[in-house]
Amino acid sequence: MADQAFVTLATNDNYAKGAMVLGKSLQGHNTSRKLVALIGPQVSEPAREVLRNIYDEVHLVDVLDSGDTAHLALMKRPDLGVTFTKLHCWTLTHYSKCVFMDADTLVLSNVDELFDREELSAAPDPGWPDCFNSGVFVFRPSNETYEKLLQRCTEDGSFDGGDQGVLNSFFSNWATADISKHLPFIYNLSSIAIYSYLPAFKQYGSEAKVVHFLGKVKPWNYSYDPKTKSVKGHSQDPSMVHQDYLLKWWDIYSTMVVPLMKEHYGSQPFHSGVSEVDDIHHGVAHVHVSVPPPPPDISSEERKQKWEQGQADYMGMDSFDNIQRKLDSFLN
Ligand code: UDP
Ligand code: GLC
Ligand code: MN
């Protein structure tokens, strides 16, 4: 057990907040494994201090960046080139087996049984289920694998510009070779999937063990009022469909992480730009984010065509709420 660990990554203070909440959620569910955080040089000293308080090990690593703007643009996520940094997890060779978890994941119950699985075990990606999602995966640290992965990155790049593309190309037989390497979806339930298949979520959602706030808008981008324990957000955002997980994240953040920040650094702003700790003193934690503008209006004929081509605008006009409203108005 001492040679097994949960590993995450944060290259900046925002993702560090995610890592803090993730670490607390793993501890809250009594994991018997070690906790390791990989951080980049941009993470501020106060944030490092809090991470050291939660994690058994905090390692500073070089930030690797794919610099692959073309592929990243396809995903509409120019920020994800740095996810190549994730590959450093293979260098943790003082562990025999690890589970990597994105900093935007949250554990809802004990998941130590993941260590029964072998490299490379992961859950299907909600957007392309023949690929695995690299937000949660079981791996065996090895310098040899690390070198091979880096070589793959330099020679072939990554089809999505981030780690998930290169990992899927490298572990290319994941989809077909061994079903035991397919983690059940409940170990990496992405907020996107909740939205795109709501009936399945209603049927199976209560079994979820790990929620993944996949996508542009992260829990730390919302506003939270600790007094009323409520979260305010963007109506365009799919994860608003299920606020319970967001509230869980914010509850851990405000009750277990913020006190640690205060303990180490009084009421100093946690990082430049956003004085979140200060804001919490005033009752409301406010963080501003820019969200993409709403899609341009289209005619109902165009909309119908899009529907027929399977291109419903699930995030906007054809959102579940809107469909429900329409149905309600028919029924009444
Ligand atoms: N990450 C990071 N800094 C960044 C972007 C990503 O540390 O600027 C790490 C972090 O652990 C994050 C993971 O890489 O959870 C993958 O990125 P993200 O979760 O944003 O991708 P998504 O799951 O939304 O596709
Ligand atoms: C995905 C994964 C994330 C990964 C990113 C870049 O959407 O959720 O973990 O870092 O793609 O490849
Ligand atoms: Mn993620």
TrEMBL record:
Q: What does the record give as cofactor? A: Mn(2+)
Q: Which reaction does it catalyse?
A: L-tyrosyl-[glycogenin] + UDP-alpha-D-glucose = alpha-D-glucosyl-L-tyrosyl-[glycogenin] + UDP + H(+); [1,4-alpha-D-glucosyl](n)-L-tyrosyl-[glycogenin] + UDP-alpha-D-glucose = [1,4-alpha-D-glucosyl](n+1)-L-tyrosyl-[glycogenin] + UDP + H(+)
Major subcellular location class: cytoplasm
Q: In which pathway does it act?
A: Glycan biosynthesis; glycogen biosynthesis
Q: Where in the cell is it found?
A: Cytoplasm; Nucleus
- Which InterPro entries does the record match to this protein? Glyco_trans_8, GNT1/Glycosyltrans_8, Nucleotide-diphossugar_trans
Per the record, the coiled-coil ranges are none
Q: Which domain of life is it from?
A: Eukaryota
For this entry, list what GO says about its biological process: glycogen biosynthetic process
> Which Gene Ontology molecular function entries are recorded, alphabetically?
glycogenin glucosyltransferase activity; metal ion binding
Task: Identify the keywords attached in UniProt to this record, alphabetized.
Answer: Cytoplasm, Glycogen biosynthesis, Glycoprotein, Manganese, Metal-binding, Nucleus, Phosphoprotein, Transferase
* Ligase listed as a keyword: no
Under which main EC class is this enzyme filed? transferase
Taken from the record, one Pfam family name reads: Glyco_transf_8
Under which EC number(s) is this enzyme classified?
2.4.1.186
One GO location term (cellular component): nucleus
Protein family per UniProt? Belongs to the glycosyltransferase 8 family. Glycogenin subfamily.
Question: Which PANTHER family does the UniProt entry name for this protein?
Answer: GLYCOGENIN SUBFAMILY MEMBER
Q: What does this protein do?
A: Glycogenin participates in the glycogen biosynthetic process along with glycogen synthase and glycogen branching enzyme. It catalyzes the formation of a short alpha (1,4)-glucosyl chain covalently attached via a glucose 1-O-tyrosyl linkage to internal tyrosine residues and these chains act as primers for the elongation reaction catalyzed by glycogen synthase.
**UniProt name for this protein:** glycogenin glucosyltransferase
The species this protein belongs to is Megalops atlanticus (Tarpon)
